[in-house]
C-alpha cells in the first residue's frame, strides 16, 4: 500500500549526502516530491539515518540543500528519503521545482517557444 501524500515526479538530478555518523555518498535523484525523493546510489544507508542532502538540478542552478532527510528504506541500490527540515529559502526553491514538474510537458514546451529570442511559425 502506497502511503505517500504527495505525488513523486520522475527526474534525473545528481545528488550527494552525508550524516553525522560519517556516512556519505552520492547518487542520482530519480523521483522528487515536496516531502521526499528516491535516489539510486551504491552507498548503503540504514533506515532511520538522518542525512544532509544536496540536489543538483539541471543547468547552472545552485544545489538545493535539504538540512535533514530521513532514510525510510534502502534496497536494491535505491534509497527512499523523507524531507524533515529545509531552510525557508530552500523550501521555496523546492516548491518551485515541484511546481514546474507538475506542469504538462506541452506547457513547458510552449514556454520555451515563447521565450524572447525564439520564433514561432
Radius of gyration: 16 Å
Enumerate the spans where pLDDT stays under 50 for 5 or more consecutive residues.
none
Number of helices: 2
Strand order of the largest sheet: 1-2-3-6-5-4
| Average pLDDT level | 85
Do you know the CATH topology?
Thrombin, subunit H
Assign a percent range to the helix content.
Answer: 10-25%
The separation of the N and C termini measures: 48 Å
Helix and strand pattern: EEEEEEHH
The count of DSSP E runs of length 2 or more, i.e. the number of strands, is 6
CATH architecture: Beta Barrel
What structural class results from the helix and strand content? alpha+beta
Compose a concise summary of this entry.
This protein has 121 residues and is of the alpha+beta class. The protein has two helices and six strands. The relative contact order is 0.17.
Give a written overview of the molecule:
The chain is α+β, with helices and mostly antiparallel strands. It has two helices and six strands; from the N terminus they run E-E-E-E-E-E-H-H. Strands 1-2-3-6-5-4 form a six-stranded antiparallel beta barrel. Helices cover 21% and strands 42% of the residues. It has a single domain, classed as Thrombin, subunit H.
Amino acid at each position: 500500500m502506497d502511503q505517500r501524500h504527495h505525488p513523486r515526479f520522475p527526474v534525473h538530478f545528481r545528488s550527494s549526502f552525508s550524516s553525522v555518523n560519517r556516512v556519505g555518498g552520492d547518487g542520482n535523484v530519480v523521483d522528487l516530491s515536496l516531502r521526499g525523493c528516491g535516489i539510486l546510489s551504491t552507498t548503503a544507508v540504514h533506515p532511520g539515518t538522518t542525512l544532509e542532502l544536496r540536489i543538483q538540478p539541471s543547468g547552472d542552478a545552485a544545489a538545493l540543500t535539504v538540512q535533514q532527510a530521513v532514510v525510510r528504506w534502502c534496497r536494491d541500490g535505491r534509497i527512499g528519503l523523507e524531507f524533515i527540515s529545509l531552510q525557508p529559502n530552500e523550501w521555496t526553491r523546492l516548491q518551485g521545482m515541484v511546481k514546474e514538474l507538475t506542469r504538462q510537458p506541452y506547457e513547458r514546451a510552449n514556454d520555451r517557444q515563447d521565450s524572447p529570442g525564439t520564433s514561432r511559425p
